[in-house]
Amino acid sequence: MDKDTVAGVLKEIGVLLELKGENPFKTRAYVNGARTLEGLTESLETLIQEKRLGEVKGIGKALVEKITELVETGELEYYTNLKASIPAGLIEMLDVQGMGPKKVKALHDKLSIESIEALETACKAGQVAELDGFGKKSEEKILESIAFKRQHASHHHRHKMLHAAEPILGDLRSHPDVIRCDIAGSLRRGKEVSGDIDFLVSAKDSSDIIEAFTTRDGILSVLAAGGTKASVLLEGGIQADLRVVEDSEYASALAYFTGSKEHNIVMRQRAIDRGLRLNEYGLFKSTEETRDPELRLDCNTEEDIFAALDLAYVPPELREDRGEFTAAENGDIPRLIEWTDLKGSLHNHSNWSDGHESLEEIAEYMSGLGLAYWAVTDHSKASFQANGLDEARVQKQLKEIAAVNRKLEDDGNSFRLLSGIEVDVLKKGLDFEDDLLAQLEIVVASMHVAGSDEKDNTTRLIK
Questions:
Q1: Who has greater pLDDT, 410 or 133?
Q2: pTM for this model (two decimals)
């Protein structure tokens, strides 16, 4: 178990303790311990093996024991028991915008609310607005957040989907019976939000592949399993679907299940206009719908299919019927932005606030990626929960940035760190005075959660 996973458990323990109303110092010890782990530059496993973890500032004896148990066994009895002692609904309520541990505990103590459904009922009855620390606007915001959460419950951000999909994709590709395998659907098209993960596999025999897919670790339930198809629910509430086809069908199946629906409609019509039929089983020399392999054109790749329809290859990200066909006919498909086009990043955090790595580590890694610059924009002091920097720490960080840049220059490396800050926009103005901000190269101004009232937020922005 790596340090970030352990840190995540410690953070969750801190939240659970706050839900139970435990001593704030005890709660803070776990949160601070998590932050310390995230900033470690030495291997956590090495520190444990050499019994030096207790020497790390911020890691006391109790934390050493719990961290060691987690790393060595993959489990922590204290965490398991603590989580079991708290109604699961309270933890789910934390996903509602504006609901932190203190507010969830207050609702539980005063209204015996233990689920999002009960919270919604109480809000609609006007009970939440009557409590200290809430009010009518808070009640309305809670109802809006619950409605939004429910509406988008089956949709997940791209980074979460890729995090779940990539290990499965790797396992499928390494399966001895698999010939080819890709992610399809909206995730392949690069959409920011997707409803599920689609996997397409070509193989001579599907039985062992279906078995491996439905019995792997991290599956909450098997939704369906047949001869060539299976659907599972992954941890985190993500649905993953697998379809196995013959390799001769793979290219057309990949194009079909990648979509979009609008793009596919135009593709099928172009095939018809040329006396062909295109479906998920192939591109056929026929004027009628068919799966006859004798009529299937030899299209081993998607590029072959596009070429047969007199089109340049269209990347998945552009398949939305929004002008890609005209561009493909004229050979004007634009080159998509690639990682090598990225020159730097202007909003980032280091272990000076709530990031994980030191400035020197970041400079070495980002330089190795071929970037030219990386802006150091750690949190300002108002974001105390994220270990925000005060004026004195900003000055110290400026000196370290200069030292790292000098070392890079001495080594003949043109990469450089840019000085900066993510400064909070407060009711009175920015978190730092202009004379300090003028010393920095990059300033990111952020609202964060200091105010949820739209009028107040707008006033703060234009002040």
A1: 410
A2: 0.71
